[in-house]
Amino acid sequence: MSLLVSIRGWSPDEWVARFRAAAAPRPVVDARESFEPASIHYAAVWMPEPGLLARLPNLKAIFNLGAGVDALLADLTLPDVPLCRIVNPDLTARMTEYVVLQCLMHLRQVEAYRRLQAKARWEPIDQPAATEMRVGIMGMGVLGQDSAEVLKRVGFRVAGWSRMPKTIRGVETFAGEVELGAFLARTDILVVLLPLTPETRGILNGGLFARLARDGALGGPILINAGRGGLQVDADILAALENGTLKAASLDVFETEPLPASSLLWKHPKVILTPHVAADSTPEALVEAVLANVALHEREGRLKDVVDRQTGY
Ligand code: NDP
Ligand code: OXD
């Protein structure tokens, strides 16, 4: 086998070095160098240049180095070979850290205390318990279910919304458009871990925010989006924060990334903003797992974690 590594948006050097060390003596090709397209059998990629994969006549499978495949599927020339995504305990644990951190930041009113600290003011604020807070997770896949487990353990009342119905112990579950209203109406903290697909694009808009619970213990609903920026309408989030439809937001992803310096979200006092780092992919955690999937394909002709191109995730 010969593996092509093509990475844009992250630094490729460490990935290429680690793939080379772990795959040796089999060749690993760095897409920044010149290579013979017909020599490539597998590709490990993150946001590769559109059209690149279509130029590989002997490609057998594509390994996306992140969990979300929306950027790859947006390449209309993507060859019709199996596409695998990352499902990995390291990435999952990182996302759960982010989600639990953000839920607790809002629950424990950390931003309000930071502002009081800046003024040297000793002013206790009424503090609801986690057991009073209803967290609703949109997207109950690998990441959503793990976050739900830990949030439950912390004491939050957790519900989940997915495309297909599910039964998850200790989690109230909702599915599809018909149950979206009931899910939103019982949600104080909305955590979004959906993939970006034609069905989910723009789903986080003013209309949806208006359907969230308004009788929660924190005095207004909170949005936490770590899925994809294309799920949200940035302008609607700003408007909802201004008119009180949303009390606060934690945003890791944005319609345009990097978020332009001119965006009002940067300095908004009700926004906790991070630059798409909720769950980083690292070569240390993932290279060996990708190569194990390649080996599985070579040995048994099957692959793990294959994306359904029909649903787009
Ligand atoms: P999964 O494919 O395991 O789960 C996706 C979930 O979304 C499933 O529960 C699925 O429903 C649900 N879903 C999809 N479409 C719809 C729809 N139209 N209506 C309702 N529910 C829907 O994905 P992961 O959990 O592994 O990852 C989720 C996303 O997180 C990724 O696609 C990526 O965009 C994002 N991500 C962001 C990162 C970051 O750093 N910010 C890092 C990693 C991932 P069902 O169960 O019924 O199929
Ligand atoms: C991913 C990401 O999809 O990092 O894994 O966004």
Low-confidence parts, pLDDT < 50 over ≥5 residues? Answer: none
Helix content: 25-40%
Mean pLDDT: 98
Strand segment tally:
12
Distance between the termini: 27 Å
Count of alpha and pi helical runs: 9
**Molecular shape:** elongated
The sequence of SSEs as H and E is: EHEEEHEHHEHEEHEHEHEEH
Strand content: 15-25%
Biggest sheet statistics = 7 strands, parallel
Gyration radius, in Å: 21 Å
Strand order of the largest sheet: 8-7-6-9-10-11-12
Structural class: alpha/beta
Ligand catalogue = NADPH dihydro-nicotinamide-adenine-dinucleotide phosphate, oxalic acid
Task: Write structural notes for this entry.
The chain is α/β, with parallel strands linked by helices. 31% of the residues lie in helices and 16% in strands. The chain is elongated and about 65 Å long. The model has no long low-confidence stretch (mean pLDDT 98). Bound molecules: NADPH dihydro-nicotinamide-adenine-dinucleotide phosphate (NDP) and oxalic acid. Oxalic acid binds next to loops.
Tags for this model:
single chain, 313 residues, alpha/beta, seven-stranded parallel sheet, five-stranded parallel sheet, 12 strands, elongated, binds NADPH dihydro-nicotinamide-adenine-dinucleotide phosphate, binds oxalic acid
Question: Could you write a compact summary of the structure shown?
Answer:
This protein is 31% helix and 16% strand. It contains nine helices and twelve strands.
